[in-house]
Amino acid sequence: MTEFNYPKYTFGSRGHNVNDCYVVPSLDLVVVRQGNDDLPGRSVPCS
């Protein structure tokens, strides 16, 4: 598995059909990925 280095206090959520949301308060940044597919084996790294 690939290791990711996220800024401290980064958090995220995962929804149906691989809809993701990541929030990085220290950068005033929100990243949203909206999709209509559910890729088998796709996972989000957890710390």
On the 0 to 100 scale, the average pLDDT is 80
Helix content class: under 10%
Strand order of the largest sheet: 1-2-3
C-alpha-based Rg, rounded: 12 Å
Approximate shape: flat
Count of DSSP E strands?
A: 3
Largest beta-sheet details: 3 strands, antiparallel
Please identify the oligomeric state.
single chain
Q: Enumerate how many helices there are, as a single number.
A: 0
- When the domains are counted, the total is 1
- For the termini, the CA-CA separation is 13 Å
Q: Strand content of the residues, in percent?
A: 25-35%
Low-confidence stretches: none
Order of helices and strands: EEE
Primary descriptors:
mainly beta, 47 residues, 0% helix
Detailed description of the structure:
- With 47 residues, the chain is mostly beta strands.
- It has one domain (1-35).
- Helix content is 0%, strand content 34%.
- It is built from no helices and three strands.
- It has strands at residues 11-15, 19-24, 29-33.
- Strands 1-2-3 form a three-stranded antiparallel β-sheet, with no helix packed on it.
- The radius of gyration is 12 Å and the shape is flat.
- The protein starts with 10 loop residues before the first strand and ends in a 14-residue tail after the last strand.
